[in-house]
Design brief:
The protein is an alpha+beta fold and 636 residues long. The chain contains 16 helices and 19 strands. Helix 1 crosses helix 6 and helix 15 packs antiparallel against helix 16.
Length: 636
């Protein structure tokens, strides 16, 4: 503080070192509290944020105001001083209010550079306004003037310090880093205050103001400074206590969440592991050790690959390295040698955990034992193949004797006239001829029925061994062609078949799709109600994110509820049997739809009509082949 002259008398000014130190300590402690509370504003993902914003504003604004007040009490200028209560309280309101607005802006707009560059200058100007409002509250027997250049420097310090404070407050920091940041910010705030004081020039207008009077006030100033400081520290202590209690709550929630996570992993028979950002296994991995028997020294870095099946190792390492490079979720499958020395199948899923800057901090993954699932799938494939072979063999072997029956029946039919001639004149000749004709008719009908059933079984067996050839299909065009092929049949039944013009494209085997919807359209026309004109429509809508539901709806006879469960069974038919058929059409349709990885559902009410919903995958997954395939080692 520069001295000033009045009536050729030099007024010496200075600072009380103890109170100066106290003001700086107060600024640092307030900065740390505000940083901690502001961090909770950022971390608050649920619940209201305003209590933490208010706490941060009280800690920062109140701390800066207290630092200013103690700093003013530390100032010794050899004349009596007092403070205007209204302006003093206004300076406190300015400090708390502007600080709260700055914290709220960053809390709700995010901690982007643009948000910080708005809130930082706002807080800095508010701190400067608080300082100079507090100076205006000063009542002395003299005049007060300012050096504009130094005032500008003090405002610049306030803006810079406030911007840095907000930038630090809304970043992740440990206790050590937070202490350093609080120290820097506290010193900057104190520097702003004392720079502002350096800009002030005091000129005495009265010849009084003896030094003795100033000395008598010194003890009172010190006591007042202690009262303000004590109250401020108490408020900051309560803020820190609230922060600590909240930290304990968060810690308990994290522990509970971790316990639930580990329980969930155990519930799905999974093993949890972690890798560093580069994909190397580090630290203690008790789950991995329990699963594989590897020690920490053995699985360290990429040692975990030693327990991967030799046939799967290269694919696993390549897939893992590619995942680490591209920073995406890792989905994979391989075999591991477990602690009992057996090879078991595992499905792996790992995700990257990012830090505040967006860099990968670590990988968290789970190995899930799917050995039983893979074995069951292999057994199911083998069983299906066996059933198909058995059906083919049985059908083939049944056809051979059936051919003989058909041949001998034809011979009996040819000799029927000779029998009739031989029995001419016999009193029972007419009855014998009638019975023989009827018996041969029954045999021929049964043979034809058996031939149809055998042909159906052979057809299903061949379909099971078919290789699908997927291609993009314009479903509107394809189904319109099917409708045109059924036009004569539909006209005869007084029916109209309407194909929606906006059906989506899919990727599938054309012949199989034609068989599916050809059967459904044929059945819809075949079982219309003759008492009213028939209406058949084909529409489509999305079924989830990857599926399409094609609906074939008619206003025909409908199907009784008791028969809903049996319509897809082989050789089973429902309702009045006045139409030809063997009961294999819908069973064949269901088998084809399932081979595509889809499903078929039915909605029907007797007398109202029927809707068949065919849900198919949208993309090339419809190209599933029925031949056994090796288990994939990785999935993109």
């Amino acid at each position: 503080m520069r001295p000033s002259r009045d009536d050729n008398r030099m007024i010496h000014t200075g600072y009380n070192p103890a109170l100066v130190a106290l003001s700086i300590g107060l600024a640092i402690f307030a900065s740390y509290t505000a940083l901690d509370l502001a961090g909770r504003v950022r971390e608050q993902s649920s619940g209201p944020r305003w209590p933490w914003i208010a706490g941060s504003a009280l800690a920062m604004g109140g701390g800066i105001w207290s630092m200013h007040f103690v700093g003013m009490l530390a100032f010794e200028m050899g004349m009596s001083a007092a403070y205007h209560l209204g302006l003093t309280l206004l300076s406190l309101v300015i400090a708390v209010g502007v600080t709260g607005m700055a914290f709220a802006w960053v809390a709700y707009r995010g901690n982007s550079p643009a948000a910080i560059l708005v809130a930082g200058p706002l807080m800095g100007l508010g701190v400067a306004a608080m300082h100079y409002t507090g100076m205006a509250a000063l009542r002395i027997p003299g005049d007060l003037a300012y050096d504009p250049a130094i005032v500008a420097v003090s405002v610049a310090i306030a803006v810079t310090a406030a911007t840095a404070a907000l930038w630090l407050a809304f970043r992740q920091h440990g206790v050590g880093q937070k202490l350093i940041a609080a120290g820097i910010m506290g010193l900057a705030v104190a520097g702003m205050h004392y720079t502002g004081m350096a800009a002030a020039t005091f000129t005495a207008t009265e010849a009084g103001a003896p030094i003795a009077h100033a000395e008598m006030l010194s003890q009172g100033q010190q006591n007042l400074a202690l009262y303000v400081t004590g109250a401020t520290f108490f408020i900051l202590f309560l803020a820190m206590l609230g922060s600590s209690l909240d930290q304990q709550r968060v810690q308990r929630e994290l522990q509970a969440s971790e316990a639930r996570f580990r329980a969930a992993i155990q519930a799905v028979r999974g093993v949890l592991w972690t890798n560093d950002a580069a994909g190397r296994m580090r630290g203690e991995q008790p789950g991995w050790t329990a699963m594989t028997g590897q020690t920490r020294a053995e699985y360290q870095d990429y040692g975990w690959a030693q327990v991967v099946h030799p046939e799967d190792t290269q694919a696993t390492v390549e897939a893992w390295n590619e995942t680490v490079r591209t920073r995406r979720t890792f989905n994979h499958e391989h075999r591991l040698r477990t602690v009992d020395g057996m090879w078991r199948h595992f499905a792996i899923r790992a995700i990257p955990v990012l830090d505040a800057t967006g860099d990968i901090r670590e990988w968290v993954g789970v190995h899930t034992d799917i050995t039983e699932q893979r074995e069951a799938e292999a057994e199911l494939r083998e069983s299906n193949e066996e059933i198909q072979r058995y059906a083919y063999i049985v059908s083939h072997d049944l056809r051979a004797p059936l051919v003989n029956v058909m041949g001998f029946t034809s011979e009996l039919e040819a000799t029927r006239l000779e029998v009739r001639a031989a029995l001419a004149g016999h009193p029972q000749a007419e009855r014998i001829d009638t019975d023989l004709t009827e018996a041969l008719g029954f045999i021929a009908a049964a043979v034809n029925r058996m031939e149809g059933l055998i042909a159906a079984i052979l057809k299903l067996s061949r379909e099971g061994r078919r290789q699908f050839r997927p291609e993009p299909l314009d479903m509107t065009s394809l189904l319109q062609e099917l409708a045109d092929a059924h036009r004569h049949q539909a006209d005869a039944a007084r029916a109209v078949v309407a194909i929606a013009p906006d059906l989506p494209q899919i990727v599938a085997d054309r012949l199989a799709i034609e068989q599916i919807f050809g059967n459904l359209l044929d059945n819809a026309i075949k079982y219309l109600d003759p008492s009213r004109p028939g209406r058949i429509s084909v529409t489509a809508q999305a079924a989830g994110t990857r599926g399409i539901c094609f609906s074939v709806t008619d206003n025909g006879r409908g199907i009784a509820e008791r028969d809903h469960a049996r319509v897809f069974e082989l050789f089973r038919r429902s309702g009045t049997q006045d139409r030809p058929g063997e009961g294999i059409g819908l069973a064949h349709v269901k088998a084809l739809v399932r081979s595509f990885g889809g499903r078929i559902e039915m909605r029907s009410k007797l007398g109202d009509g029927t809707t068949f919903d065919v849900i198919l995958p949208h993309g090339a997954v419809t190209a599933i082949a029925r031949e056994p395939e090796p288990v994939p080692l990785a999935a993109a």
